[in-house]
Design a protein that fits this description.
GO terms for molecular function: 2 iron, 2 sulfur cluster binding; metal ion binding; oxidoreductase activity, acting on the aldehyde or oxo group of donors. Keywords: 2Fe-2S, Iron, Iron-sulfur, Metal-binding, Oxidoreductase. This is Xanthine dehydrogenase YagT iron-sulfur-binding subunit. With about 210 residues, this protein is an alpha+beta fold. The chain has seven helices and five strands. A five-stranded mixed β-sheet has the order 2-1-5-3-4, covered by helices on one side. Helix 4 (about 140-145) packs across helix 7 and helix 5 (about 155-165) runs parallel beside helix 7.
């Protein structure tokens, strides 16, 4: 009677490995794209979690804030999500609409395009910081007087840009105002009233 032999056949092992790999590739090929994207997203989130948070100090509307944030956080998201200053709006999130305009050391910037860590030690002013107590800023009052808004979503960014426009000396004519406010988009089309509001503040000679 022949002995039973235990044989490790390389050919069989190779064929088994090939079948396993083929099955895996077939399964991946048939997996919905949305599932694959979700898997990628989880990997990205785990990778993002590896970022070390770094200290950041900002002066926002006259108040000093000591924070710890991830390097990838934008100034816009920090203002809205960390400091709860939701007057600054997230519109296109690509620097094309101006809804997120704030002042950094007196200069208007699109906060969606500025990383928060780039503003260490700087002074930030948002729409919430324009008024003095219950007294509206002259530009805010002028926007109300001239109906410079409809839905109001773009209004905070419009007002912040308008204040800067006057301070920069770019509000001496309607043509100048239109040119230097062109980075702020109003989908409601309140542009004529916005121009009138800015022109009135410019002509009043008041401090903005």
């Amino acid at each position: 009677m022949a002995d039973k032999k235990t044989n490790n056949c390389p050919e069989k092992d190779s064929r088994r490995d090939f079948l396993k790999q083929s099955t895996l590739y077939t399964a991946l090929a048939l997996t919905p794209v949305t599932v694959l994207k979700a898997a990628d997203k989880k990997v990205d989130e785990r990778f993002a979690a590896l970022f070390e948070k770094i200290p950041l100090t900002l002066n926002v509307n006259g108040s000093k804030h000591a924070l710890s944030i991830e390097p990838r956080v934008t100034l816009l998201d920090l203002l809205r999500e960390e400091l709860q200053l939701t007057g600054t709006k997230k519109g296109c999130d690509h620097g094309q609409c101006g809804a997120c305009t704030v002042h950094v050391d007196g200069v208007r910037v699109n906060s969606c395009l500025s990383l928060a860590v780039m503003n260490e030690g700087k002074s930030i002013t948002t729409i919430e910081g324009l008024a003095t107590g219950d007294t509206l800023h002259p530009m805010q009052a002028a926007f109300i007087k001239h109906d410079g808004f409809q839905c109001g979503y773009c209004t905070p960014g419009q007002i912040m840009s308008a204040v800067a426009c006057v301070r920069e000396g770019h509000a001496k004519s309607k043509a100048d105002i239109r040119e230097y406010m062109s980075g702020n988009i109003c989908r409601c089309g309140a542009y004529p009233n916005i121009v009138d509001a800015i022109e009135e503040v410019q002509k009043s000679g008041g401090t903005v």
